[in-house]
């Protein structure tokens, strides 16, 4: 009897991922502010009904507003001896977490290197555009983020990382504007640069100053299909008026994505640490990250895992 091939579920779903650093107290404050916004403006849209923390296998019924459970770290309690290396909290629309999701992953430095903490907001596939753009407008006005991206993502909830990322790599050959989830190495990479732009790409004010970005006038960018919004804590660039998966078989235009990639060249990640699956190959990884600059390299990339 032939052995059945292992299968993984990979689906396209709209998502926003925000990266940020700072002390334990600063990271907690960012998460609490975002949860407050989500309670006021997104709870109904996301339909969040359950929650879990850390390594809990089961989900608990969500009652009341979104908030972090347990004690809040202070600036005095930031050492690895007194602060968990990783805190993880999730709120979802269903216990399988296949619908809407809000996740906060808080990471302490490791080996003397700062790691990016993340907030992920995953939407149902229908009627999310207005909620996502409203969220991004609020974020750049209220949160000291490092950078973030929003748009279509390839999502896999299983634990077969290599199989899932093999499938994501194959799908990415067709859907050029859809992003993979965060690789295990992303907390380190995210502090060094942006691996890819999305439909909405956010850059915190510190990185904007550091790179001395020259974006030009908003009106001039709009003529190129790129929309710029600036606020107290950073900027957001939109590649077009609506998100696309970048389906090259369906005739999607990638011109606006290429322009955003070009505008943010000083901040783009130059070299990423290994990712799972076919992306473990450095040539494949680099070709995907540079696909808007050198499309032929991504088209030629051999996805056979080494």
| Model regions low in confidence, pLDDT < 50 over at least 5 residues | 71-82
Helical fraction: 25-40%
Order of helices and strands: EHHEEEEEHEHEHEHHEEHHH
User: Which structural category do the helix and sheet elements fall into?
Assistant: alpha+beta
Query: Outline, from the CA principal axes?
Result: globular
Largest sheet: 11 strands, mixed
Rg (C-alpha, Å):
19 Å
Which percent band covers the strand fraction?
Answer: 15-25%
State the distance separating the first and last CA atoms: 28 Å
Number of helices: 10
Keywords, separated by commas or semicolons:
single chain; 306 residues; alpha+beta; 11-stranded mixed sheet; 10 helices
Produce the secondary structure layout.
Blueprint: E1 11-20, H1 24-41, H2 43-46, E2 50-53, E3 60-61, E4 86-92, E5 101-107, E6 117-122, H3 129-142, E7 147-155, H4 161-172, E8 179-180, H5 186-189, E9 200-204, H6 205-211, H7 218-222, E10 226-231, E11 234-239, H8 255-263, H9 282-289, H10 295-300
Parallel strand pairs: 7-8
Antiparallel strand pairs: 1-6, 1-7, 2-3, 2-4, 4-5, 5-6, 7-9, 9-11, 10-11
Your description of this structure?
The chain has 306 residues and is an alpha+beta fold. It has one domain (11-52, 85-300). It is built from ten helices and eleven strands. It has helices at 24-41, 43-46, 129-142, 161-172, 186-189, 205-211, 218-222, 255-263, 282-289, 295-300; strands spanning 11-20, 50-53, 60-61, 86-92, 101-107, 117-122, 147-155, 179-180, 200-204, 226-231, 234-239. Strands 1, 2, 3, 4, 5, 6, 7, 8, 9, 10 and 11 form an eleven-stranded mixed β-sheet that branches. The radius of gyration is 19 Å and the shape is globular. The protein starts with 10 loop residues before the first strand and ends in a 6-residue tail after the last helix.
């Amino acid at each position: 009897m032939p052995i059945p091939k292992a299968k993984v579920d990979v689906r396209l779903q709209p998502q926003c991922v925000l990266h940020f650093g700072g002390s334990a107290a600063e990271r907690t404050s960012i998460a609490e502010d975002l949860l407050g916004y989500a309670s006021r403006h997104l709870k109904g849209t996301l339909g969040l009904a359950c929650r879990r923390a850390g390594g809990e296998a089961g989900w608990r019924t969500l009652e009341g507003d979104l908030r972090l459970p347990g004690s809040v770290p202070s600036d005095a309690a930031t050492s690895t001896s007194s602060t968990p290396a990783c805190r993880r909290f999730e709120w979802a629309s269903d216990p399988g977490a296949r619908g809407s999701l809000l996740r906060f992953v808080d990471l302490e430095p490791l080996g003397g290197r700062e790691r990016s903490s993340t907030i992920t907001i995953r939407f149902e596939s229908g009627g999310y555009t207005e909620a996502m753009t409203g969220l991004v407008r609020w974020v750049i006005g209220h949160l000291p983020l490092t950078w973030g991206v929003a748009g279509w993502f390839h999502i896999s909830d299983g634990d077969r990382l290599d199989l899932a990322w093999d499938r994501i790599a194959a799908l990415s050959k067709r859907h050029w504007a859809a992003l993979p989830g965060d690789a295990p190495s992303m907390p380190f990479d995210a502090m060094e640069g942006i691996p890819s732009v999305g439909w909405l790409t956010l850059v915190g004010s510190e990185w904007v100053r550091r790179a001395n970005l020259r974006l030009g006038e908003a009106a001039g960018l709009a003529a190129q299909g790129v929309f710029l919004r600036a606020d107290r804590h950073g900027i957001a660039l939109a590649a077009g008026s609506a998100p696309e998966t970048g389906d090259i078989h369906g005739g999607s235009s990638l011109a606006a994505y290429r322009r955003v990639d070009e505008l943010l060249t000083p901040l783009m990640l130059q070299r990423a640490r290994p990712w799972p699956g076919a992306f473990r190959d450095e040539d494949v990884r680099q070709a995907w990250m540079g696909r808007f600059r050198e499309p032929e390299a991504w088209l030629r990339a051999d996805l056979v895992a080494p």
